[in-house]
Specification:
With about 220 residues, the chain is an alpha+beta fold. Helix content is about 30%, strand content about 30%. Strands 1, 2, 3, 6, 10 and 11 form a six-stranded mixed β-sheet that branches. A hairpin with a 2-residue loop joins strand 8 and strand 9. The radius of gyration is 22 Å and the shape is elongated.
């Protein structure tokens, strides 16, 4: 399992070397001590493997939900671009995010650009991502057309939970990108304002679901 994550991948050779050292230690130890060490090692690896498999399972659930919802969205010819307010980068330490546009092509769907406004790591597939209240708000122009949507992200650090970015620079609280305006309200809360445009579908990730903000199945009055 340690080969999957980028950070853990670099630990593979040290872990392999340490296992050889442990094997040599067990061979040289007295029988009773050797059996005790072997039992402790097996128990530790079972616990670690169970944790990794759980992370893999949660990451697979998130990946399936994300890609499945994106495929459904591309079925409309009106959709030219998809923007996700908070893309799950990792879940439980296991990688999720990647080239979603390429994934759509592999699945035979229309190859629509998929862009992330922010990237966040979550501890589990059902982790709460959006602050409440409100879940999100939509602003209207004088002509009653939606011009932007704002969501507030809970980014309080914890085990396997971390705000990846992009983040405002030192001494700043706001960052503007090509698709969003990001405001760091406090260390645990980030406000993301997405700009709407014709053909652009806007989504946010929360509690295991990709929630439509603007696009197919979403309206400006949603809260």
């Amino acid at each position: 399992p340690n080969l999957v994550g980028l950070q853990e991948r670099y630990l593979f050779l040290p872990v392999a070397a340490s296992c050889l050292a442990i094997a040599a230690l067990l061979a040289a130890a007295r029988p009773a001590l050797g059996r005790g060490l072997l039992l402790a090692i097996i128990s530790t690896w079972i616990i670690l493997a169970a944790g990794h498999w759980r992370a893999w399972y949660d990451a697979s659930l998130v990946s399936d939900q994300l890609v499945g919802r994106l495929v459904a969205e591309t079925m409309s010819s009106d959709v030219e671009e998809i923007v996700i307010a908070n893309v799950p980068l990792r879940v439980g330490g296991a990688s999720v995010a990647g080239d979603f546009q390429a994934s759509l092509g592999v699945l035979g769907a229309r190859s629509v650009p998929v862009r992330g406004a922010t990237w966040v790591s979550y501890p589990s597939a059902r982790a709460v991502a959006l602050a409440d209240p409100p879940l999100w708000t939509a602003e209207k122009s004088p002509h009653e057309d939606v011009s932007e949507v704002t969501v507030r992200l809970e980014v309080q650090p914890g085990p396997f939970r971390r705000y990846i970015g992009p983040a405002p620079g030192p001494g700043q609280s706001m960052l503007r990108t090509s698709v969003a305006e990001i405001l760091q309200e406090n260390p645990d809360l980030v406000r993301v304002t997405l700009r709407a445009s014709p053909g652009r579908s806007l989504f946010a990730w929360d509690s295991g679901h990709l929630i439509p903000l603007i696009g197919q199945g979403a309206t400006a009055e949603q809260r």
